[in-house]
Amino acid sequence: MADVNRGNRPLSPHLTIYRPQMTSMSSIFVRITGNAMLVAALMIVWWLLAASSSPEYFAIADGFLRSWFGDLVLFLSLWALWYHTLGGLRHLYWDNGGSYDVAFAEKLGMGMIVGSVVLTILTVLVI
Asked: Which of 5, 27, 50, 80 gives 58 a disulfide partner, CB atoms 3.0 to 4.6 angstroms apart?
């Protein structure tokens, strides 16, 4: 049977009028950072395998890892590690019955961003 009310239905919100929430964006970035850390892990595994194979091959891998691109990937992976860790702590807090208030959840999202940047800078300065 034909749907006679097709034109009278409300439309779903479109991306041009939808404002992403801090909670959804922080959750998406936790997933992205978790997957992005695989790049750094593969680079470190490559560096360790090169160290165990030959000095010439290790020089190639070490040169790549110490280049500006390797430094950038490792720095961003360090930030991703802190961001992902703080996201895990946020979910652990929620899983134990923490506040589900929207305003507090948005503060936790901002805390993840600020905290991950501060912890990344502190880690770089200490190491």
From this structure: 50
Give the domain range for residue 90.
Answer: 21-126
What is the C-alpha separation between 120 and 85, in angstroms, rounded?
12
Rounded-to-integer distance, Cα 6 and Cα 2, Å: 9
Could you report how far apart the first and last alpha carbons of the chain are, in Å? 69
Write out the two tokens for 19: 């404002």
From 1, 2, 3, 87, select the one nearest 37 (Cα to Cα).
Answer: 87
In a domain, 101, yes or no: yes
CA atoms in the 13 A half-sphere facing the CB of 109: 18
Q: Which token pair is 36?
A: 């992005």
On whether residue 92 sits in a domain, the answer given is yes
Question: For residue 14, what pLDDT is reported?
Answer: 67
Mean pLDDT for the chain? 88
**Cβ burial, residue 20 (10 Å; 0-12/13-18/19+):** exposed
How many domains does one find in the chain? 1
The rounded distance, in Å, linking the Cα atoms of 92 and 46 is: 33
